[in-house]
Amino acid sequence: MFEKKDQKQAGKSSELTALSELGEFGLIDRLTKNIQRFHPETLKGVGDDAAVIATGDKVMLLSTDLLVEGIHFDLTYMPLKHLGYKAVVVNISDIAAMNGIPLQMTVSIAVSSRFPVEALDELYSGILTACEKYHVDLVGGDTSSSVKGLLISVTITGTARPEEVIYRSGARSGDLLCVTGDLGSAYMGLLILEREKKVFQVNPAMQPELSGFDYQIGRQLKPEARTDIRNVLMGAGIRPTAMIDISDGLASEILHLCKQSKTGCRLFEEKIPIDPQTRELALEYNIIPTLTALSGGEDYELLFTVSQSDYEKIKDIEGITIIGHMTDNSGEKVMITPDGKQVELTAQGWNAWTSGLADKRTSGPVDKRTSGQAD
Amino acid sequence: MFEKKDQKQAGKSSELTALSELGEFGLIDRLTKNIQRFHPETLKGVGDDAAVIATGDKVMLLSTDLLVEGIHFDLTYMPLKHLGYKAVVVNISDIAAMNGIPLQMTVSIAVSSRFPVEALDELYSGILTACEKYHVDLVGGDTSSSVKGLLISVTITGTARPEEVIYRSGARSGDLLCVTGDLGSAYMGLLILEREKKVFQVNPAMQPELSGFDYQIGRQLKPEARTDIRNVLMGAGIRPTAMIDISDGLASEILHLCKQSKTGCRLFEEKIPIDPQTRELALEYNIIPTLTALSGGEDYELLFTVSQSDYEKIKDIEGITIIGHMTDNSGEKVMITPDGKQVELTAQGWNAWTSGLADKRTSGPVDKRTSGQAD
Asked: Which of A185, A286, B38, B368 is the most buried (most CB within 10 A)?
């Protein structure tokens, strides 16, 4: 067995560090800094959307995600079928962010005895619906009880030819920064669902007022992964230089690309694609619309960079927007507002240990919401 | 979004089924019965120790395990470093059970804010120690907060040549049933730790009485995976016909082999390898020693079958014991006692939703423990 001193050392309470002091990214850095690599087949380990493993003439991509009730989802407004669907989609999105094709998946669940079997039938129905839509084989998993709540752990594999894989680290100064679809709507969907939950808690006889917000609620409850973009870009003869999916919010993902590519960036606020209704809703909630995109997260769109020489090829592709460019000054990561001001992009990150579900994305710039809801 | 009826259907409480009614194996069967397969590369999905995926001239093995605090481990006697080590080993054991070589691993953890960063350092120290020992690359993961307790989800990959992979389904009538190492000690280690926990709860000034039981406690807290067996058997020119690792207990694993191979089996009680001190300890606890092996679990030894024609090759290999043989009567799965009686082997399984940690392995035949502890 191990030496006894380890336990004693961990027990010295005077020197202990709270998880909230480090936050998610700090913790990951700390826990992964001593990792060794034993196999040359492991081309890329921790630090991108997926690991990359050499397997003959192709590579295998490997990614994993953990969804915890009360942290990542709230079953009072997230139907179990949607939850199952979303749990699969967020993992497929990681494979799409590497420019790969998803193949197989394992799903483990821990569930307390308060859930009936039929609830898990619903969950799996959503999982299998997503598997069918994205052609992913569910090949394994583990089923366990939990002390409290539901927890879902999904691991996915994908495939690509080695030269197709796109890392976060490939962006160069001058590259155009592009995004698919529009941003911020998943976050506004969450706020609507949270609001109706509160109304319901005050007066259970009230029916939820969700009609008219189908787009935002759909983006939150049933997001899709952009596996289509691989073919769109290949068809246009474009190979992105770096890519990441937008799970935490645009600002956080841009900073990931900058950090790993060792570049700066200039983002133009007016270029950020936001659905008009989402923009209007944000204002009703006293939130600057741009912040729903920068910090909202969960849109599962792709953020990528392309060489400037690809400008003509990419500028007219529907559903792709050029929102800025990378610079050689790695100290400068800024957003330019319509009136020409420069705002520094800050890592939203997400400190899971100081905030619950509802507060998750309202820390930092989106905190105006708590000061009043205009409707 | 999905149709609304799904949610309503799941809400009809009159028709709901408790998880405890189905149990783990029943639930897995129910949830996985509608799985489709989309990719020919997926050679084997749910139903063995690992999935098998074709990747060029080799196959990739993929397996996953979930460990939940209060269900699978108790931090009052499981040091975090040991927990990290064990979480890795139980996954490596799944790859060993397919006759593969472990390669890469992802580790996701959900942890509540009650844990300091130093506790996770300890956990990862154990994880990385196991990675180093077994040469496994830690390539990814997810770190999240939990509402309560610690949860660890590990997914592992392995490799093998296609012809090397050994499934649970390959046993034939007449094949010899073999086991590595000895069984039941991990379970007795758990009972010792549970007993000392109870003593400590009654009188916190008492020091735990663990000395003299190093072997049993080590088997429980720091198990090892039998990755060595692959080379031992290859060296002896033996290719098992079926294989599984012993995580739930010998009886349960034998029944898995029989079910998937469509055979019966005859197990000889006196052949089951049990450490002499473990045997003695079991008697002190009023437990029939054989039951620690049949139902205890967590020994992570390998159970496998070989052709009768390999008898001469295998009979003298140290650390491998022939304990019975497979039969063509799939209705007969029996243990022969020393006095010639036949006892039917029953699936222990483990109904996670009706039992907590301490009770986990004491349901069924091992329930004598609750009637008295002879020390």
From this structure: A185
CA separation for the pair B193, B207 (Å, rounded): 12
Question: Do both B122 and B233 map to the same domain?
Answer: no
Chain A partners of B142 at a C-beta cutoff of 8 Å? 64-66, 153
Interchain proximity A142–B65, CB inside 8 Å: yes
Among candidate residues A169, A170, A162, A171, the one with its CA nearest the CA of residue A52: A162
* Residues 6+ positions from A360 with CB-CB distance below 8 Å: A71, A350, A352
Q: What share of chain A is helix, strand, coil (3-state, %, to 5)?
A: 40, 25, 40
Interface test with B, best of A155, A211, A355 (most B CBs within 10 A): A155
Which residues of B fall within a CB distance of 8 Å from A108? 64-66, 153
Structural domains in chain B (count):
2
Residues A337, A315, single domain; the answer is yes
Last residue of a domain, one of A164, A181, A203: A164
A205 and A173 housed in the same domain: yes
Q: Which of A137, A148, A360 to mutate to test the interface with B (most CBs of B within 10 A)?
A: A137
Report the residue from A109, A126, A140 with minimal CB separation from B51.
A140
Contact A145 B71 (CB under 8 A): yes
Separation in Å, CA of A116 to nearest CA in chain B: 5
CATH number of the domain enclosing B213: 3.90.650.10
**Domain-located, residue A188:** yes
The b/e string for A210-231 (b: 16+ C-beta within 10 A; e otherwise) is: eeebebbbbbbbbbbbbbebbe
Cα B337–chain centre separation: 25
Note whether residue B367 is domain-resident: yes
Same domain, A133 and A249: no
Q: Which residues of B touch A30 (CB under 8 A)?
A: 117, 121
β-bridge partners, A273: none
> In terms of domains, do B267 and B189 share one?
yes
Per-position pLDDT tens, chain A of length 375 = 675 544 444 444 567 888 888 877 788 888 888 899 999 999 999 989 899 999 988 999 999 999 999 889 999 889 999 999 999 999 999 999 999 999 999 999 999 888 999 999 999 999 999 999 999 999 999 888 888 889 999 999 999 999 999 999 999 999 999 999 999 999 999 999 999 888 888 887 777 677 789 999 999 999 999 999 999 999 999 999 999 999 999 999 999 999 999 999 999 999 999 999 999 999 999 999 999 999 999 999 999 999 999 999 999 999 999 999 999 999 999 999 999 999 999 875 444 454 433 334 333 333 332 233 333
Under DSSP, the state recorded for A132 is: H
Which residue in the block uniquely carries the two structure tokens 């105006």? A368
d(CA A246, CA B102): 32
| Complex prediction ipTM | 0.86
pTM: 0.88
CA distances B362 to B78, B83, B292, B353, B374, Å, are 19, 22, 10, 14, 16
